[in-house]
# Entry
Amino acid sequence: MKKFNVAVLGVTGAVGQEFLTILKQRKFPLARLKLLASGRSAGKKVSFDGAEYTIEEAGPASFQNIDLVLSSAGGSVSRELVPCAIKAGALVVDNTSAFRVDPEVPLVIPEINPEDIFKHKGVIANPNCSTIIMLVPLFPIHRLAHIRRIVAATYQSASGAGAKAMQELEKQTHEILAGRPPVKEVFPHQIAFNLFSHNSKVMEDGFCEEEVKMIRETKKIFHDDTLQVVPTTIRVPVFRAHSEALYVEVEKQVSLDQVRSVLDGAPGVRLVDDRQKNYFPMPIEASHGDDILVGRLRRDPANSKGWALFVSGDQLRKGAALNAVQIAEIWARKPS
# Structure
């Protein structure tokens, strides 16, 4: 198999570090690896697969002779540097919000719309973590009975706000247990022993930016502008792995056995639905895993075409880095 020169942009962040872990675990065909970050991190050493690499400061000239860029350095950095990478001849898989709703840019979850990968013009967008964790388990139901409406309530871990947010959760927990007031630096509210509405800008209609992402991205990935999505996004004191309580209305009546059957063994999904043991998806069991756990399957007693379920998935892996690497793997396998 052909090998590729790969650059990781934003390597010092939580997702950037996860990129390295997954590239090694999945044995991505690397010819050369380049690690890029801000000037603050330039010169630092990083170990990867038995070798030591020096982080370089990312800039417009960083992408010469690079085939693939895995990017997670923030939207403003992506808007500045992704065009430079494309001009240099690289494909960029971008894990920021910079290009997700651009009609010229494919927005891809490999279990759902892998064919869109080959429509790229130099950049492929990785969806928002909450969107990925919601849609991977919903797509088998969508194929079975066509979902027309989704109501979602998220339970989003600190990892969604980065490594410093995870550290803040740990630090605040120690402070509170020691009887000291918790210090807030990353989140606007106390995260330890608390939960609050997602810390993104609230729009005039009352939806926050995180919820708007889920609405727009779902329509784009499913190629269905008629699909109704009503999310409520909440931060919870969990280190990593987002969970979501989902309610869907479908177009045709299906049985519980049919729903269980399409979910059991679906790509990227693991059914965890034991009513007798009261055993269902938990973020602690989804953490560091690749599958989205799905369970609590039940029909709406007031609507025979309504279904409720609960899901958990690792935000840093399938919700971010793993999804991007899977996109890159499919791209890499295409015959030249």
